[in-house]
From TrEMBL:
GO BP, sorted A to Z: anaphase-promoting complex-dependent catabolic process; cell division; positive regulation of anaphase-promoting complex-dependent catabolic process
Record's protein name: CDC20/Fizzy WD40 domain-containing protein
PROSITE patterns reported in the protein's UniProt record: WD_REPEATS_1, WD_REPEATS_2, WD_REPEATS_REGION
Protein family (similarity comment): Belongs to the WD repeat CDC20/Fizzy family.
GO MF annotation, one: anaphase-promoting complex binding
Function: Component of the anaphase promoting complex/cyclosome (APC/C), a cell cycle-regulated E3 ubiquitin-protein ligase complex that controls progression through mitosis and the G1 phase of the cell cycle.
Keywords for the protein's UniProt record, in alphabetical order: Cell cycle, Cell division, Mitosis, Repeat, Ubl conjugation pathway, WD repeat
A single cellular component GO annotation: anaphase-promoting complex
Superkingdom of source: Eukaryota
Pfam family, one: WD40_CDC20-Fz
Length: 313
């Protein structure tokens, strides 16, 4: 075990902002080939992609592909004293969570980019997610705590920055998802010692429901088209589970990954879900189906770009 002195000796690490749609080759890519991407997020306007770079094994990196798509826009440093493992966009604000337990709001438009720092977690910040309105931020930590931050409260001089401190989970909280069809509804998922999905009213701080999933909850994703929730899991099955909300009846289980499913992302039309796992594979699933309005509006295309992916509908 490292001594406290060794644990605090991390150098201030960097976030590299890139534009994935500009074909210009990253001029100093060779400086990063020995590093690892540990977190990634896209801004809503699709112009900025942020990659956290840290200790990459060079033989696993295809530098030719990366060089064609990454353009360094700027480097943000000084906000954290140890690694950055979680990020979330809120318009021009990039919010980062660190192993130091701090949450930092970075305004990427200005030179002095650190505009706010939220303190409440006692261990690493594992997950961050802004609400659709951009007013509330949910953070999950390795201290088993979920905080709800309201921008108006967190920006004040109040000694307590957070709006709610939710302590019902019994393991680290990485999975966070704001409901797209009901205001102030947040779903959170706990790690291997907890295994539950919990639902919260973030206006009152009340826990509305708790469901034991039977395994570590790594990520959560609401359907854009239906009242459904998708969860991704770890040991033992490394599965995706589709739930009907609010009954939480299990609709389907999808398997294929051989390690815990760490990340999920939804296509713009809400039909396809991409998953990334510890088995170093990226998989595509037709989980949620095509909304009825889209079915009526256009006939089925002759060739679908994801026609070969896993389907449940």
């Amino acid at each position: 075990m490292e001594s406290p002195k060794e644990q605090s000796s991390y150098t201030v690490e960097q976030l590299v902002a890139v534009n994935p749609f500009n074909p210009e080759i990253l001029p100093d890519l060779e400086n990063y080939v020995n590093e690892q991407v540990t977190s990634q997020t896209y801004s809503l306007d699709a112009n900025l992609c942020l990659l956290r770079l840290y200790q990459f094994e060079p033989e696993r990196m295809n530098t030719h592909i990366v060089a064609r798509i990454l353009v360094k826009l700027r480097t943000l440093k000084g906000g954290h004293q140890s690694r950055v493992g979680s990020m979330a966009w809120n318009n021009h604000i990039l919010t980062t969570g660190g192993m130091d337990g701090q949450i930092v709001n970075n305004d990427v438009r200005i030179r002095s980019h650190v505009v706010e720092t939220y303190r409440g977690h006692t261990q690493e910040v594992c997950g961050l997610k802004w609400s659709g309105s951009g007013q509330q931020l949910a953070s999950g930590g390795n201290d088993n705590v979920v905080h709800i931050w309201d921008r108006s409260v967190a920006s004040s001089n109040s000694t307590t920055q957070y709006l709610h401190r939710l302590e019902e989970h019994t393991s680290a909280v990485k999975a966070l998802a704001w409901c797209p069809f009901q205001a102030n509804l947040l779903a959170t998922g706990g790690g291997g010692g907890d295994r539950t999905i919990k639902f919260w009213n973030t206006h009152t701080g009340a826990c509305l429901n708790s469901v034991d999933t039977g395994s570590q909850v790594c990520s959560l994703l609401w359907s854009k088209n239906e009242r459904e929730l998708l969860s991704s899991h770890g040991f033992t099955q490394n599965q995706l589970t589709l739930w009907k909300y609010p009954s939480m009846v299990k609709m389907a289980e999808l398997t294929g990954h051989t390690s815990r499913v760490l990340y999920m992302a939804q296509s713009p039309d809400g039909c396809t879900v991409a998953t990334a796992a510890g088995d170093e594979t990226l998989r595509f699933w037709n989980v949620f189906g095509v909304p009825e309005t889209a079915k009526k509006a256009a006939p089925k295309a002759a060739h679908e770009p994801f026609s070969h992916v896993n389907r449940i509908r």
